[in-house]
From TrEMBL:
Cross-referenced SUPFAM superfamilies: NAD(P)-binding Rossmann-fold domains
Origin: domain of life: Bacteria
Domain NAD(P)-binding per the UniProt entry, residue ranges: 26-186
Gene3D superfamilies: NAD(P)-binding Rossmann-like Domain, UDP-galactose 4-epimerase, domain 1
Leader sequence segment: none
InterPro entries: Ergot_Alk_Oxidoreductase, NAD(P)-bd_dom, NAD(P)-bd_dom_sf
Protein name (record): NAD(P)H-binding protein
């Protein structure tokens, strides 16, 4: 992407690079590493953490939470898979003097059965119950799912098998998510208590998306039962299998199909199109 660090929309009350250190959880992941880069290119001091970082962070090891949180003013949070971790983490963040939490979540969470995506739901509840400044970023499927992990190996092999139909999806670019996160993390007050739905500028079907990448890629439309068996054969847990099938059900029901303008409003520029993603990634 043609990204310049100062293309981030300037918040009305910029905290200033010398007045903050921002924690980024999951700093090696799809969104986390881009949030780190975007903030650093804007002159912001960043504390990137993961299970392998110098300052370790592991959702399953509560002893790593306090060192990661100590001394930071804001944090970008990827929700834990264990919902029981959410409230204690938010409480500790508040006790450590963190002022702002920005959490990545999933679009359509309110319409998702409560037994699915419990970590995201618990994180949102914990934020609502806290006295912290918080913002939730609910995102659609990422453009980069086609080219980084998730579906990459199948796409490159020329055949993607998913439980989808012809309902369109407004895929969102991960760099857009990172830039939105940077804006919110470095703004003072105007995004507090807000939930933003982050999408691309237009909705396209999975078949159309694959054709844009390469006309030789085949889309195989699985039934939910077939998808379940496929995931289980790959060693995916029953819980994650149910969550993924629940996500695709919401997509087939059209709950995620309508684009929003949240990215363009927050960044002051159009959201990245799927065509642009393809041109930058697959050409």
């Amino acid at each position: 992407m043609n990204f310049h660090p100062w293309s981030i929309a300037a918040p009305s009350r910029w905290l200033g690079p010398m007045s903050q250190e921002i924690l980024v959880i999951g700093a090696t992941g799809k969104t986390g590493r881009r949030v780190v880069r975007t903030l650093e290119e804007s002159g912001v001091e960043v504390r990137p953490v993961s299970r392998s970082s110098a300052i370790r962070f592991d959702w399953s090891d509560e002893s790593t939470w306090k060192p990661a949180l100590h001394g930071v003013t804001a944090a970008y949070v990827i929700a834990p898979s264990d919902p029981a971790a959410a409230a204690p983490f938010v409480e500790l963040a508040q006790a450590e003097g963190v002022r702002r939490l920005v959490a990545l979540s999933g679009r359509g969470l309110d319409e998702t059965p409560e037994q699915l995506f419990q970590g995201m739901a618990a994180t949102e509840r914990a934020l609502h119950a806290s006295d912290l400044s918080w913002t939730v970023l609910r995102a659609n499927n990422f453009n980069q799912n086609f080219s980084e992990e998730i579906w990459e190996s199948e796409v490159r092999a020329g055949r993607l098998s998913l439980p989808v139909d012809d309902t369109p999806e407004p895929f969102v670019d991960v760099q857009d998510i990172a830039e939105v996160a940077a804006v919110v993390l470095t703004s003072d007050g105007e995004h507090d208590g807000q939930t933003y739905n982050l999408t691309g500028p237009e909705a396209i079907t999975f078949a159309a998306a694959l054709q844009k990448i390469s006309p030789t890629i085949e889309l195989v439309k699985l039934t939910p039962a077939e998808y379940r068996e496929t995931l289980l054969s790959y060693g995916v847990s029953e819980e994650e299998t149910a969550e993924l099938n629940g996500m695709f059900e919401a997509m087939r029901d059209g709950l995620l199909a309508t684009p929003t303008d949240d990215v363009s409003r927050l960044l002051g520029r159009p959201a990245t199109s799927f065509d642009t993603y393809v041109a930058n990634t697959w050409r």
